[in-house]
Design a protein that fits this description.
Blueprint: H1 25-54, E1 66-68, H2 76-96, H3 99-118, H4 123-126, H5 147-152, H6 168-171, H7 175-186, H8 192-203, H9 206-217, H10 220-231, H11 236-239, H12 243-262, H13 268-281, H14 290-300, H15 304-315, H16 317-325, H17 329-342, H18 350-365, H19 367-377, H20 402-422, H21 430-433, H22 435-441, H23 451-468, E2 469-471
Antiparallel strand pairs: 1-2
Helix pairs in contact: 1-18, 1-19, 2-3, 2-10, 2-23, 3-9, 3-10, 8-12, 9-10, 9-12, 12-13, 12-14, 12-22, 13-15, 14-20, 20-22
Length: about 475
C-alpha cells in the first residue's frame, strides 16, 4: 500500500487548476523554450568545432555521447503508438483515474515507452550490449566469486594504472552498483539481457515514486498534472538498459518514503527511506547530492523531529555493512577522483562542459521542462482563484500553497544538479549520469497550460534523438 488515502480518491476529474500566471504567460514559456533550443544549438556548434580542432571532448556527437546514424527498428511503431496515446489521452486519464489506477497506468506506460525506445536500436544493440561493453559491469561479474574478499580488495583496482584495474563504470561507482549484477547472476539471471531488463523494469518505477512524493508534499492535483510528463519524458531514451535509471529509482523511492513519513504516514517509512538513501550512496558517489532533496522534503513536512531517529537508523545500515566487510567509501572516492583526472576527465575542457552539460539536460528533460521551470520560479507569486488551485489537497500543511511546495522541491533538484555541474566531476555523459536529478525537474511541467502541445514536443524530441542518433548509453 502506498497511501491510506488512495482508497478514498474520487474517480471523477478534480477541479481544473487556475493560476495567476507569472509575467509573460505563454509567451514567456515559448521564450524559455527558445532559450533552451539556442543553448543546445550552441553546444552542438561549439562542441563540434572544439572536437574537430582539439579532439578533447571525447564524445561522438557533442554534447552527447553517440553518433549520427538515422535509423528505425522494431521498437519504432510501438514508440510512436505510445507517444500518440499519451498525448491524446494522457492528461484526461491522469485527471480521472483512481489514484492507485493512475500509479499503475503511469508505471505500465513508462515501461512501454522505455522499452519501445530501447528496441528502436534492436534487442542486442539496444538492450543486451548496453551492459556488456568493456566499460560496463557484466564483464567483471566473475571477479566476485568471493564477495567479501572482492570488496576488501576493491580500492586496489580503481586507479587506471593499478593491476587488473576495474572498467570505467565499475571504478567510477561504489561496489553496490556492480554487486547488483553479481547478485542477479547468482540468482540465475546473468548476462546483458537480464541486466538490461532489470534496469528498465526497476528504473520505470521512478516516475511512480515522484508522483507519490508530489502528492504527499504538494497536492494530488499537481501530481496528476505532472504524470503524463513523467511518463513521456525524453529521459527514457537513456533510461533504456542504463544502470543510472535503476539508481534513479532507488533514490526516488528514498524521497517518496520520506515524504510519506513527514506528512503523517508511519515513522517506519522513514526507516525505509534511510535504508534506500544509504543504498543510493553505495550505488553512485554523485547521488550523495540527493541529501539536498532530502533536506527539502524535511523542510516541507510536518513531522521532522518525529521521523529523524528512524531516518538515521535506516541510513547507517548499508554503510555499516560495507565498512565492516572492509570497503572504505572515502578512500575509494579519493582514488576515483585521481582516476577521473588520469583519463578523459582530466582532458575535457571545463569551460565548455560547465554549460554544455545544461544543454544535455535540455535534451534529457525536454522543452516543456524548460518552460515549466520558468513557471516554477514564479510559483511563489501565483495566486489561486477559487478553491484548491491544484485540484486536490496534499497532506503537507502550513508551508505555503501546494504550488510553492512543489516549486521548492523542484528548486532543490536544480540546486543539486548545479552542484554536480560546478564540481567538475560531471564533464560529459550527463544525459546518463543526471537521470536521477532529471526525474525531479519534470514535475515543474505541472504548471504549464496547453498540456497536449507540450507533451507532443516532449515526444517528438525523444523520437528524433532516438532515431537520428545512436546513443552511447
Amino acid at each position: 500500500m502506498i497511501s491510506t488515502r488512495s482508497t478514498r480518491t474520487r474517480t471523477h476529474a478534480p477541479a481544473r487548476a487556475r493560476f495567476r500566471l507569472p509575467a509573460g504567460g505563454v509567451a514567456g514559456d515559448l521564450a524559455a523554450a527558445l532559450v533552451a533550443v539556442l543553448l543546445v544549438v550552441a553546444a552542438v556548434v561549439v562542441g563540434r568545432r572544439i572536437q574537430d580542432a582539439e579532439h578533447t571532448l571525447f564524445v561522438g556527437w557533442p554534447p552527447l555521447v553517440g553518433a549520427w546514424e538515422p535509423h528505425v527498428g522494431p521498437g519504432t511503431p510501438a514508440a510512436v503508438a505510445v507517444a500518440v496515446a499519451v498525448v491524446a489521452y494522457g492528461p484526461r486519464a491522469a485527471a480521472r483515474l483512481p489514484w492507485r489506477g493512475l500509479l499503475l497506468a503511469a508505471y505500465g506506460t513508462a515501461l512501454a515507452w522505455i522499452w519501445s525506445l530501447a528496441l528502436v536500436d534492436g534487442w542486442r544493440r539496444g538492450v543486451v550490449e548496453r551492459l556488456t561493453t568493456r566499460h560496463e559491469y557484466v564483464p567483471v561479474v566473475g571477479r566476485f566469486h568471493d564477495i567479501p574478499a572482492a570488496l576488501r580488495d576493491f580500492t586496489h583496482h580503481i586507479l587506471l594504472h593499478s593491476p587488473d584495474n576495474w572498467p570505467a563504470h565499475v571504478a567510477g561507482h561504489p561496489p553496490g552498483a556492480v554487486l547488483t549484477f553479481v547478485l542477479l547472476d547468482r540468482a540465475g539471471l546473468g548476462g546483458g539481457g537480464w541486466a538490461g531488463a532489470w534496469c528498465i523494469t526497476v528504473g520505470a518505477t521512478g516516475c511512480v515514486a515522484v508522483l507519490v512524493a508530489v502528492r504527499a508534499l504538494a497536492s494530488e492535483g499537481l501530481a496528476r498534472r505532472a504524470a503524463p510528463f513523467l511518463v513521456l519524458a525524453p529521459a527514457a531514451v537513456w533510461a533504456g538498459a542504463s544502470p543510472d535509471a535503476y539508481f534513479a529509482a532507488v533514490a526516488a523511492w528514498s524521497l517518496a518514503l520520506l515524504a510519506l513519513a513527514v506528512t503523517g504516514g508511519s515513522r517506519w517509512w522513514a526507516l525505509g527511506a534511510g535504508l534506500l538513501f544509504g543504498l543510493t550512496c553505495y550505488l553512485s558517489y554523485g547521488l550523495t547530492l540527493f541529501a539536498v532533496l532530502g533536506a527539502a522534503v524535511l523542510l516541507l513536512g510536518r513531522g521532522r523531529l518525529r521521523v529523524l531517529p528512524f531516518l538515521v537508523a535506516g541510513l547507517v545500515v548499508v554503510p555499516a555493512v560495507f565498512t565492516l566487510v572492509g570497503f572504505d567509501w572515502w578512500e575509494a572516492y579519493r582514488l576515483l577522483v585521481r582516476r577521473y583526472y588520469e583519463g578523459a576527465g582530466g582532458v575535457r575542457p571545463y569551460g565548455y562542459w560547465v554549460w554544455a552539460n545544461l544543454a544535455c539536460t535540455v535534451l534529457l528533460t525536454g522543452l516543456a521542462t524548460a518552460a515549466g521551470l520558468r513557471r516554477a520560479g514564479g510559483a511563489p507569486g501565483a495566486v489561486r482563484a477559487g478553491g484548491d488551485a491544484a485540484g486536490g489537497r496534499g497532506r503537507a500543511r502550513g508551508w505555503g500553497t501546494p504550488e510553492v511546495r512543489l516549486a521548492v522541491l523542484v528548486a532543490a533538484a536544480v540546486l543539486a544538479l548545479l552542484a554536480a555541474d560546478l564540481s567538475g566531476m560531471s564533464k560529459a555523459e550527463t544525459e546518463r549520469i543526471w537521470l536521477p536529478f532529471a526525474l525531479w525537474l519534470l514535475p515543474a511541467c505541472a504548471f504549464l497550460t496547453g498540456t497536449r502541445a507540450w507533451l507532443a514536443a516532449q515526444a517528438v524530441l525523444a523520437l528524433l534523438v532516438n532515431h537520428l542518433l545512436l546513443t552511447g548509453w
